[in-house]
Amino acid sequence: MDFGAPGVHRGLPDTTITVVLPLDTPLSVSWGSGEERRTTWSSLSGLHTEPAAIHHDGHQAGIQLALTLAGARAVLGLPAAELAGALTDLDEAVPGLASVPERLHDLDQWSDRVALVDRTLADLLARHGDARPRAEVGHALAALTRGARVEEVADEVGYSRRRLTELVRAECGVPPKAYQRIARFRASRDRLVADPAAPLADVAADSGYSDHAHLTREWAALAGCTPTAWLREEFPFVQAPEAADAEG
Fold it and tell me: What is the pTM of this model?
Protein backbone atom coordinates (compact mmCIF):
# COMPACT_ATOMS: atom_id res chain seq x y z
CA MET A 1 0.00 0.00 0.00
CA ASP A 2 1.46 3.35 -1.05
CA PHE A 3 0.42 6.27 1.18
CA GLY A 4 2.50 8.80 -0.75
CA ALA A 5 4.23 10.23 2.32
CA PRO A 6 5.11 9.21 5.89
CA GLY A 7 2.26 9.44 8.36
CA VAL A 8 -0.08 7.58 10.68
CA HIS A 9 -2.78 5.16 9.55
CA ARG A 10 -5.76 4.50 11.84
CA GLY A 11 -6.44 0.93 12.86
CA LEU A 12 -10.19 1.10 13.42
CA PRO A 13 -12.22 -0.88 15.98
CA ASP A 14 -13.76 -4.03 14.57
CA THR A 15 -15.66 -7.12 15.65
CA THR A 16 -12.81 -9.31 14.41
CA ILE A 17 -9.35 -10.20 15.70
CA THR A 18 -6.67 -8.61 13.53
CA VAL A 19 -3.41 -10.35 12.66
CA VAL A 20 -0.84 -8.34 10.71
CA LEU A 21 2.33 -9.83 9.19
CA PRO A 22 4.37 -6.96 7.73
CA LEU A 23 7.02 -7.40 5.06
CA ASP A 24 10.00 -5.21 4.09
CA THR A 25 9.76 -3.09 7.26
CA PRO A 26 8.45 -3.91 10.74
CA LEU A 27 5.16 -2.57 12.00
CA SER A 28 5.28 0.45 14.31
CA VAL A 29 2.04 0.62 16.24
CA SER A 30 0.58 2.19 19.37
CA TRP A 31 -2.71 3.06 21.00
CA GLY A 32 -3.03 6.70 19.99
CA SER A 33 -0.37 8.73 18.21
CA GLY A 34 1.07 10.02 21.49
CA GLU A 35 1.70 6.69 23.22
CA GLU A 36 4.90 4.67 23.14
CA ARG A 37 5.23 2.73 19.91
CA ARG A 38 5.68 -1.01 19.62
CA THR A 39 7.89 -2.15 16.74
CA THR A 40 7.26 -5.72 15.65
CA TRP A 41 7.29 -8.17 12.74
CA SER A 42 3.86 -9.47 13.78
CA SER A 43 0.89 -7.90 15.48
CA LEU A 44 -2.21 -9.39 17.05
CA SER A 45 -4.99 -7.15 18.33
CA GLY A 46 -8.26 -8.00 20.02
CA LEU A 47 -11.46 -6.00 20.22
CA HIS A 48 -10.88 -2.39 21.16
CA THR A 49 -12.85 0.85 21.44
CA GLU A 50 -10.17 3.29 20.34
CA PRO A 51 -8.12 3.52 17.15
CA ALA A 52 -4.64 2.08 16.89
CA ALA A 53 -1.99 4.35 15.40
CA ILE A 54 0.03 2.59 12.70
CA HIS A 55 3.08 4.67 11.87
CA HIS A 56 4.52 4.29 8.38
CA ASP A 57 7.19 5.74 6.13
CA GLY A 58 4.81 6.15 3.19
CA HIS A 59 4.61 2.49 2.19
CA GLN A 60 3.39 -0.69 3.80
CA ALA A 61 3.34 -4.27 2.55
CA GLY A 62 2.24 -7.44 4.29
CA ILE A 63 -0.56 -9.88 4.99
CA GLN A 64 -3.50 -9.02 7.23
CA LEU A 65 -6.01 -11.51 8.60
CA ALA A 66 -9.38 -10.82 10.21
CA LEU A 67 -10.58 -13.65 12.45
CA THR A 68 -14.13 -13.82 13.71
CA LEU A 69 -14.65 -14.54 17.39
CA ALA A 70 -15.43 -18.17 16.51
CA GLY A 71 -12.37 -18.17 14.24
CA ALA A 72 -10.16 -17.00 17.11
CA ARG A 73 -11.13 -20.08 19.10
CA ALA A 74 -10.90 -22.44 16.13
CA VAL A 75 -7.53 -21.16 14.88
CA LEU A 76 -5.81 -19.64 17.89
CA GLY A 77 -7.28 -21.95 20.48
CA LEU A 78 -8.32 -19.17 22.84
CA PRO A 79 -11.29 -16.85 23.37
CA ALA A 80 -11.03 -13.37 21.93
CA ALA A 81 -11.41 -12.03 25.48
CA GLU A 82 -7.79 -12.96 26.14
CA LEU A 83 -6.75 -10.48 23.44
CA ALA A 84 -9.18 -7.64 24.15
CA GLY A 85 -7.47 -4.26 24.08
CA ALA A 86 -4.12 -5.90 23.35
CA LEU A 87 -1.43 -5.09 20.83
CA THR A 88 0.87 -8.06 21.09
CA ASP A 89 3.31 -10.20 19.09
CA LEU A 90 2.33 -13.61 17.78
CA ASP A 91 5.09 -15.36 19.69
CA GLU A 92 3.67 -14.00 22.95
CA ALA A 93 0.07 -14.99 22.30
CA VAL A 94 0.10 -17.84 19.77
CA PRO A 95 3.33 -19.87 19.74
CA GLY A 96 2.01 -21.88 16.79
CA LEU A 97 2.36 -18.79 14.60
CA ALA A 98 5.65 -17.53 16.02
CA SER A 99 7.83 -18.78 13.15
CA VAL A 100 5.61 -17.45 10.36
CA PRO A 101 7.08 -13.91 10.06
CA GLU A 102 10.63 -15.17 9.53
CA ARG A 103 9.49 -17.87 7.12
CA LEU A 104 7.54 -15.28 5.10
CA HIS A 105 10.70 -13.25 4.63
CA ASP A 106 12.43 -16.25 3.08
CA LEU A 107 9.85 -16.30 0.27
CA ASP A 108 9.85 -13.98 -2.76
CA GLN A 109 6.48 -14.72 -4.36
CA TRP A 110 3.15 -13.56 -2.97
CA SER A 111 1.57 -16.88 -3.95
CA ASP A 112 4.13 -18.73 -1.82
CA ARG A 113 3.59 -16.38 1.12
CA VAL A 114 -0.18 -16.81 1.00
CA ALA A 115 0.22 -20.58 0.70
CA LEU A 116 2.43 -20.60 3.81
CA VAL A 117 -0.17 -18.69 5.83
CA ASP A 118 -2.94 -20.97 4.52
CA ARG A 119 -1.02 -24.10 5.54
CA THR A 120 -0.27 -22.67 8.97
CA LEU A 121 -3.90 -21.76 9.56
CA ALA A 122 -5.01 -25.21 8.41
CA ASP A 123 -2.59 -26.84 10.86
CA LEU A 124 -3.87 -24.69 13.71
CA LEU A 125 -7.47 -25.39 12.74
CA ALA A 126 -6.78 -29.12 12.85
CA ARG A 127 -5.37 -28.66 16.33
CA HIS A 128 -8.02 -26.35 17.79
CA GLY A 129 -10.98 -26.70 15.44
CA ASP A 130 -13.25 -28.27 18.05
CA ALA A 131 -13.02 -25.16 20.24
CA ARG A 132 -16.20 -23.16 19.76
CA PRO A 133 -18.01 -20.42 21.68
CA ARG A 134 -21.08 -21.51 23.62
CA ALA A 135 -24.03 -21.68 21.24
CA GLU A 136 -26.10 -19.22 23.25
CA VAL A 137 -23.23 -16.73 23.26
CA GLY A 138 -22.88 -16.97 19.49
CA HIS A 139 -26.63 -16.42 19.16
CA ALA A 140 -26.45 -13.43 21.48
CA LEU A 141 -23.58 -11.82 19.57
CA ALA A 142 -25.43 -12.25 16.28
CA ALA A 143 -28.53 -10.63 17.76
CA LEU A 144 -26.49 -7.75 19.19
CA THR A 145 -24.94 -7.22 15.78
CA ARG A 146 -28.42 -6.92 14.29
CA GLY A 147 -29.19 -4.17 16.81
CA ALA A 148 -31.42 -6.02 19.28
CA ARG A 149 -31.61 -4.52 22.76
CA VAL A 150 -29.56 -6.26 25.43
CA GLU A 151 -32.68 -7.05 27.47
CA GLU A 152 -34.30 -8.67 24.44
CA VAL A 153 -31.19 -10.74 23.71
CA ALA A 154 -31.02 -11.93 27.32
CA ASP A 155 -34.63 -13.08 27.11
CA GLU A 156 -33.96 -14.87 23.80
CA VAL A 157 -31.11 -16.94 25.22
CA GLY A 158 -32.78 -17.46 28.60
CA TYR A 159 -30.32 -15.60 30.82
CA SER A 160 -30.50 -12.61 33.09
CA ARG A 161 -28.92 -9.47 31.71
CA ARG A 162 -26.13 -9.80 34.28
CA ARG A 163 -25.39 -13.41 33.28
CA LEU A 164 -25.42 -12.51 29.59
CA THR A 165 -22.98 -9.69 30.25
CA GLU A 166 -20.64 -12.11 32.05
CA LEU A 167 -20.73 -14.62 29.19
CA VAL A 168 -20.26 -12.05 26.42
CA ARG A 169 -17.38 -10.40 28.26
CA ALA A 170 -15.76 -13.80 28.85
CA GLU A 171 -15.96 -14.56 25.12
CA CYS A 172 -14.91 -11.28 23.50
CA GLY A 173 -13.54 -9.11 26.30
CA VAL A 174 -16.15 -6.36 26.21
CA PRO A 175 -19.72 -6.19 27.59
CA PRO A 176 -22.76 -6.47 25.27
CA LYS A 177 -23.31 -2.75 24.81
CA ALA A 178 -19.67 -2.18 23.90
CA TYR A 179 -19.75 -5.08 21.45
CA GLN A 180 -22.91 -3.67 19.90
CA ARG A 181 -21.25 -0.28 19.66
CA ILE A 182 -18.30 -1.76 17.79
CA ALA A 183 -20.61 -3.76 15.50
CA ARG A 184 -22.62 -0.67 14.64
CA PHE A 185 -19.43 1.24 13.89
CA ARG A 186 -18.23 -1.61 11.67
CA ALA A 187 -21.53 -1.52 9.78
CA SER A 188 -21.18 2.20 9.15
CA ARG A 189 -17.62 1.78 7.92
CA ASP A 190 -18.67 -0.98 5.54
CA ARG A 191 -21.47 1.24 4.27
CA LEU A 192 -19.03 4.10 3.62
CA VAL A 193 -16.59 1.80 1.83
CA ALA A 194 -19.39 0.47 -0.37
CA ASP A 195 -20.70 3.95 -1.19
CA PRO A 196 -18.45 6.83 -0.10
CA ALA A 197 -20.84 9.33 -1.71
CA ALA A 198 -23.81 8.20 0.39
CA PRO A 199 -25.37 10.95 2.55
CA LEU A 200 -24.23 10.49 6.14
CA ALA A 201 -27.82 10.67 7.34
CA ASP A 202 -28.53 7.56 5.22
CA VAL A 203 -25.40 5.83 6.51
CA ALA A 204 -26.52 6.56 10.07
CA ALA A 205 -30.01 5.18 9.49
CA ASP A 206 -28.76 2.07 7.69
CA SER A 207 -26.20 1.33 10.43
CA GLY A 208 -28.45 1.69 13.45
CA TYR A 209 -27.59 5.18 14.65
CA SER A 210 -30.33 7.53 15.80
CA ASP A 211 -29.22 10.30 13.47
CA HIS A 212 -26.29 11.92 11.65
CA ALA A 213 -25.06 13.60 14.85
CA HIS A 214 -25.00 10.26 16.69
CA LEU A 215 -22.94 8.73 13.88
CA THR A 216 -20.45 11.60 13.98
CA ARG A 217 -20.05 11.45 17.77
CA GLU A 218 -19.38 7.72 17.70
CA TRP A 219 -16.84 8.06 14.91
CA ALA A 220 -15.03 10.77 16.85
CA ALA A 221 -14.92 8.49 19.91
CA LEU A 222 -14.05 5.20 18.22
CA ALA A 223 -12.02 6.30 15.18
CA GLY A 224 -10.56 9.55 16.43
CA CYS A 225 -12.05 11.44 13.48
CA THR A 226 -15.35 12.14 11.75
CA PRO A 227 -16.56 9.97 8.86
CA THR A 228 -15.90 12.88 6.50
CA ALA A 229 -12.30 13.20 7.70
CA TRP A 230 -11.73 9.47 7.36
CA LEU A 231 -13.08 9.47 3.81
CA ARG A 232 -10.82 12.37 2.92
CA GLU A 233 -7.66 11.18 4.65
CA GLU A 234 -7.76 7.38 4.51
CA PHE A 235 -10.42 6.07 2.17
CA PRO A 236 -8.17 6.49 -0.92
CA PHE A 237 -5.87 3.86 0.62
CA VAL A 238 -8.55 1.31 1.54
CA GLN A 239 -7.95 -1.53 -0.89
CA ALA A 240 -10.82 -3.07 -2.80
CA PRO A 241 -11.07 -6.85 -2.37
CA GLU A 242 -9.94 -7.36 -5.95
CA ALA A 243 -6.79 -5.34 -5.38
CA ALA A 244 -6.02 -7.16 -2.15
CA ASP A 245 -6.45 -10.52 -3.85
CA ALA A 246 -4.17 -9.49 -6.71
CA GLU A 247 -1.41 -8.46 -4.29
CA GLY A 248 -1.85 -11.47 -2.03
Answer: 0.87
DSSP secondary structure string, 71-137? HIIIIISS-GGGGTT-EE-HHHH-GGGTTHHHHHHT---HHHHHHHHHHHHHHHHHHHTT----HHH
Q: 181 Cβ partners below 8 Å, 6+ apart?
A: 49, 218, 222
124-150 as b/e, with b when 16 or more CB fall inside 10 Å? bbeebeebebeeebbebbebbbeebeb
User: Does the 135-235 domain belong in CATH 1.10.10.60?
Assistant: yes
Q: Which amino acid is at 161?
A: R
Mean pLDDT of the chain: 87
Q: Taking CA 159 as the corner, what is the angle to CA 158 and CA 160, rounded to the nearest 5 degrees?
A: 135
User: Alpha-carbon dihedral of residues 101, 69, 76, 135, nearest 10 degrees?
Assistant: -160
**Residues 6+ away with beta carbon under 8 Å from 157:** 136, 137, 139, 140, 164
**Nearest to residue 40, comparing CAs of 76, 95, 75, 90?**
90
Distances 123 to 11, 13, 69, 126 between C-alpha atoms, Å: 28, 28, 18, 5
Question: What gap in Å lies between CA 39 and CA 27, rounded to an integer?
Answer: 5
Q: Are 40 and 29 contacting, i.e. CB atoms less than 8 angstroms apart?
A: yes
pLDDT tens figures, 38-74: 888 888 889 999 999 888 887 888 999 999 998 888 8
* Residue ranges covered by each domain of the chain: 7-130, 135-235
Give the span between the Cα atoms of 225 and 54, in whole angstroms.
15
